[in-house]
Amino acid sequence: MEINGIAHLMLTVADFARARAFWGRVLPELGLNPLIDADGVYYCIGGRTAVGIQRGAPEYVGGGDRFVQGRVGLHHLCFRARSREDVDTFHDLLVELGATVVHPPEEGAFAPGYYSVLAEDPEGIRIEMNFVPGRGHLDAVKKAAG
After folding, report:
1. How far is the first Cα of the chain from the last one, in angstroms, to the nearest whole number?
2. Closest CA relative to residue 51, chosen from 117, 114, 125, 103
3. Long-range pairs, 102-107, Cβ under 8 A, ≥24
């Protein structure tokens, strides 16, 4: 069995209006089109996946809860870019939206040619975009398996 990507990611947020304003700019810029835009749910599809946000349960909304990267659950989400320029453009959008930029576009040692930006949305959820030329680690995995 081999998966065909990730069908969707849903993020639960405490401040839906603020998160909707942020993700309402980010997701369409990434080529994801709104499928559901209702009270408490914003869900976009495109690029062989979907990303959505939903309002948190009443007991967690308005209490000042924020995402904590080290807590059990989601660590961060990462969008794969088609070019280094896309990573730079994404960084510019994040800065325009006032996102907390953890690190601007930079090369990293994770894979040959790895280039990424890392930021936080209004809830503190970490968002990365990376570009890896060629097949990245997949070439090494293929050689090891073959």
Report:
1. 17
2. 125
3. 102/126
Phi and psi at residue 32, to the nearest 5°: -95, 130
Number of domains in the chain: 2
Residue 88 within a domain: yes
Closest CA relative to residue 66, chosen from 123, 105, 140, 11: 123
pLDDT tens-digit map of 90-138:
999 999 999 999 999 999 988 889 999 999 999 999 999 999 998 665 5
pTM: 0.86
Band (pLDDT 50/70/90 cuts) for residue 146 is low
The enclosing domain of 26 has a CATH number of 3.10.180.10
Indicate the burial class of 109 (C-beta count within 10 angstroms; 0-12, 13-18, 19 or more): exposed
Whether residue 26 contacts residue 19, with contact meaning beta carbons closer than 8 Å, is answered with no
Same domain? 36 vs 99:
no
Instruction: Provide the domain limits for residue 128.
Output: 75-146
Q: Is 115 helix (H, G, I), strand (E, B) or coil?
A: strand
Task: Let me know whether 50 and 90 are in one domain.
Answer: no
Strand partners, 103: 118
